[in-house]
Automatic annotation (TrEMBL):
Pfam families recorded: FAD_binding_4, MurB_C
Cofactor: FAD
UniProt cross-references to PANTHER family, sorted A to Z: UDP-N-ACETYLENOLPYRUVOYLGLUCOSAMINE REDUCTASE
Function (record text): Cell wall formation.
Residues at the active site: 164, 238 (proton donor), 333
Keyword Transmembrane: no
Annotated gene: murB
NCBIfam families, sorted: murB, PRK00046.1, PRK13903.1
Protein name: UDP-N-acetylenolpyruvoylglucosamine reductase
Organism: Fontibacter flavus
Length: 337
């Protein structure tokens, strides 16, 4: 374990923000994490956990110890006729894990293809796309308690998964470091092609009977056509969550905007944040080195050399104007550091 000093975090965040970590260490085992926590204790340092840096916005230099999770390994721990249970190191790349599952013909995560980041961060915000969320394939995780430095096991019920939420973002925020996740995948796939443009894309691809590989290919094609690649333009995917409002509130919006999109959920009507931001006039707006993406207004972008604080301020302006226009407060999905 090599604790480095004054390291630029530019290569470690998809927004491409250049901020410094006072101390930085890559950890490959639980023992490494325990040693790193000991080091932080002796220096009275805050500890910040980093996976792939695809859901964070750096707004300042970090006077802290940044722990980059590099715990690897994919292990089949149990199987029966229907399912496989696979334990995955928190530092594994999410999309590479998805490709591994497709190669093995383990179904369940194909709709989550091409989401950046690590396996360890996936339960944090219950990542989701195209009608599937982590909670649908999650079995269990292991996490190190930051105080006791002991490993604890969390089952599905313990994680309190919600839309882009889990107990680790709320009640237990900053209490645990996730080290392994166990997924329950299926040997007998149920295809989810009804969501977004998957069916249409499969038809364009000339696919009559889908497979998990073909669904993954379709999802990758759709995502590449819609979302900016962080390697080309800095971003962290959707900046805000899609808000859910009451039916009455939605009907009032409909009075002025008959085409306002809305999707019924158990809690009310979910309205696409992208639509609200576009109606408030932000789509494609550029402010120096930063802006709102021209194709997908839910994505804030750094064209190069942009400042995290300026992006945070832009997000506040967007929140304000959407609130003024529709009476809806958008909540960020991205974590500010
Ligand atoms: C182009 C693009 C598209 C995206 N599309 C989607 C999408 O479709 N659906 C979706 O849900 N998300 C999407 N995202 C967001 C992002 O990919 C996910 O949130 C992902 O899970 C973040 O993983 P990460 O390893 O990069 O986490 P990081 O950004 O490194 O960390 C995110 C948070 O989790 C904490 N954390 C990370 N690892 C651990 C750990 N092992 N233990 C404890 N805490 C930890 C960090 O401290 C931080 O608070 C997208 C992002 C981009 C850039």
């Amino acid at each position: 374990m090599n604790i480095q000093e004054n390291i630029s975090l530019l290569p470690y965040n998809t927004f491409g923000i250049d901020k410094i970590a006072r101390y930085f260490v890559q950890v490959t085992s639980e023992k490494d994490i325990q040693n790193a926590l000991d080091f932080a204790e002796t220096k009275f340092l805050q500890v910040i956990i980093l996976g792939g840096g695809s859901n964070i916005l750096l707004t300042q230099d970090l006077q802290a110890l940044v722990l980059k999770i590099e715990i690897k390994g994919i292990k089949l721990i149990f199987e029966d006729e229907e399912n496989v249970f696979v334990e995955v190191g928190a530092g594994e790349n999410w999309h590479e894990f998805v490709l591994h599952c497709i190669h093995k013909n383990w179904a369940g995560v194909e709709n989550l293809s091409l989401i950046p980041g690590t396996v360890g961060a996936s339960p944090m915000q219950n990542i989701g796309a195209y009608g599937v969320e982590i909670k649908d394939v999650f079995h269990q995780l292991k996490a190190l308690n930051r105080k006791t430095k002991e490993t604890e096991v969390f089952n599905w019920e313990d994680c309190a998964f919600g839309y882009r939420e889990s107990v680790f973002k709320n009640k237990l925020k900053d209490h645990y470091i996730i080290t392994q996740v166990v997924f329950k995948l299926s040997k007998k796939p149920v295809f989810h092609t009804e969501y977004g443009a998957i069916q249409e894309t499969l038809e364009q691809m000339g696919v009559a009977s889908p497979s998990i590989k073909l669904i993954s290919d379709a999802v990758i094609q759709i995502r590449q056509s819609k979302l900016p690649d962080p390697k080309e333009i800095g971003n962290a995917g959707s900046f805000f969550k899609n808000p859910t409002i009451s039916k009455n509130h939605y009907m009032k919006i409909k009075d002025s905007y008959p085409n306002a999109p809305g999707y019924p959920t158990e809690e009310g009507i979910k309205v696409p944040a992208a639509w609200l931001i576009e109606q408030a006039g932000w789509k494609g707006k550029t402010f120096g080195k930063i802006g709102v993406h021209g194709k997908q207004p839910l994505v804030l972008v750094n064209y190069g050399g942009g400042d995290g604080k300026a992006i945070k301020e832009l997000s506040r302006e967007i929140q304000k104007s959407v609130h003024q226009k529709f009476g809806i407060l958008l909540h960020p999905e991205v974590n500010f550091l």
